[in-house]
Specification:
It is built from 4 helices and 6 strands. The chain is an alpha+beta fold.
């Protein structure tokens, strides 16, 4: 399992440029927040160079829930049409919801946008249950973060050396969370 983009996959199987790959690396430096807040396994799906489908370039399991995908899927190819949620998110630039189903079913597909275009899709895999107050707050924070990813506002390019999580023992969501409003 990889929490860093496999450079060979991006270079050999996609048409992504160096700036797109750098943006994805920034996302992966901080995506532990999304996994932990949404209680979801995450897969980063990259469009293949021939538009034939998607290749899994990175995978992360949450520390706040049991894994939904016990297999390592990095390097796994999914042809177009196999997972409609991935296809729709990539084509429309909008988040899509899948059914909350067992193993390997996309429960949410989030377009990863940069410069006004979709460069990848973040697949979220969970049971979708948010029973208690803590889970509801975490889920709302996850919704806010993935909305920022879909809008191209997260991660921010200006903090390229300072990820908010996932690097060198950086704090995880379970260590504490402060939610601020804009005021």
């Amino acid at each position: 399992m990889s929490s860093a983009l496999i450079p060979g996959i991006a270079a050999e199987r996609t048409d992504l440029g160096p700036d797109d790959i750098a943006h994805l690396q920034l996302l992966l430096a901080d995506w532990t927040l999304i996994a932990d807040l949404s209680f979801a396994d995450l897969l980063l799906w990259l469009p293949t160079w021939n538009d034939g489908g998607f290749i899994a370039a990175a995978q992360l399991r949450p520390s706040t829930a049991r894994t939904h995908i016990p297999d390592d899927l990095v390097g796994h190819f999914v042809p177009r049409g196999r997972h409609a949620e991935l296809d729709r998110a990539f084509a429309t630039g909008q988040q899509t919801q899948g059914a909350s189903q067992p193993q390997h079913a996309v429960t949410r597909a989030v377009p990863v946008r940069r410069g006004g275009r979709t460069i990848a899709v973040l697949g979220c895999y969970s049971n979708g249950a948010a029973d208690g107050r803590l889970e509801q707050v975490y889920s709302q924070c996850a919704d806010d973060l993935v909305a920022m990813v879909a809008a191209g506002d997260f991660p921010r390019e200006t903090h390229s050396d300072q990820g908010t999580g996932g690097r060198g023992g950086a704090p995880r969501v379970g260590d504490g969370l402060i939610v601020l409003d804009t005021a």
